[in-house]
Amino acid sequence: MSAEQQTIVCEDLGSCYQLRVTAAVAAAFFDLRIFRGTSLPPAAEHAPILVPKAARIEPYTAYLMRGPLATLGAFSFAHTVLPWNLVVGRYCSIAEGLGMFGEQHPTDRATTSVWSYSPRNPVVALILADLGITDFQTYPYPQKPPAVIGNDVWIGANVMLARGVTIGDGAIVGAGSVVTRSVEPFSVVGGNPARLIRRRFSDALCERYLRVQWWDYALAAINRLAFLEPERFIDQIEDLSASGRLPPYRPPVFDASALLDMLDRLRSGAWTPPERPTLDDLLMQAS
Ligand SMILES: CC(C)(COP(=O)(O)OP(=O)(O)OC[C@H]1O[C@@H](n2cnc3c(N)ncnc32)[C@H](O)[C@@H]1OP(=O)(O)O)[C@@H](O)C(=O)NCCC(=O)NCCS
Question: Quick one: which of 11, 80, 227, 275 has the most CB atoms within 10 Å?
Fold first, then answer.
């Protein structure tokens, strides 16, 4: 990490950096088209944020409630603080109040308490030190991986995801659901535990959507297609793709270190963002 980067990184927490979002860093995010919060011009943030080292962040992502920079694909909007280790694809819409199950305690041991498996916990360390215990016996308890959300997924308000579940491409999770099992692509699920309500399209059409993976393409490429007619939309994508007129969208994808590097290059003036219309310009044009 460069000396410049160290001035904005508060701490290396192992799997994440803690980053201070000063006014300059907030402006740099905006220039990278990683949108944070809803205020313009972009503002400094009070608390440091987590930048997971494993995260992969594309431009044109919106962390509207700020929070950690979890993996988020282009054209996705999160109206919630994302769990730091969640992975989210492109063109997703995530409503407020998304949560993910935390650490799982063992259920098949004499106790569910932390004392049998002792995760890295400073309080545990302090208590053991106070009691003069230096050889406390613990037994590891493996955890499931975080949840993964595919592409073009809509998550309703106040949803809770169990660890290890995958929400398939094109799925919809109803408001207030607790998702304990993976959700099939293009399924609509709801409830606690979340159960299938219906599929969005016929099985045959779902198959075609999964084959075509339209989210691999940029907005400009799909802008004039038949959004209102799902079958014709997929016909059009198939035709364009077959004729080679649909290039995949491959923007720069930032991991933590590339992101910190870019933030510094912006702050120091080593990289200047392209000329773009301001929001005021756009509002003027629209009026
Ligand atoms: C899941 C959802 C998309 C389904 O919408 P829909 O297709 O119009 O479904 P309907 O209202 O016709 O309901 C269909 C069935 O699903 C059930 N259902 C609907 N939403 C549900 C939910 N969130 N949880 C559990 N069951 C739900 C209904 O009770 C109904 O069951 P029934 O057939 O036994 O009577 C919608 O109800 C929902 O939860 N939307 C989220 C809205 C939101 O949170 N927006 C935040 C801003 S992005």
Answer: 80
Q: Are the C-beta atoms of residues 171 and 194 closer than 8 Å to each other?
A: no
Q: Which of 9, 1, 60 is nearest to 32 (CA)?
A: 60
Dihedral Cα 4, 256, 60, 199, nearest 10 deg: -170
Q: How confident is the model at residue 73 (pLDDT cuts 50, 70, 90)?
A: very high
For residue range 229-242, list pLDDT tens digits in order.
Answer: 999 999 999 999 88
**Where would I find the beta strands (DSSP E) of 141-228?**
148-149, 154-155, 160-161, 166-167, 172-173, 178-179, 187-190, 195-199
DSSP 198: E
Domain definitions of the chain by residue range: 105-142
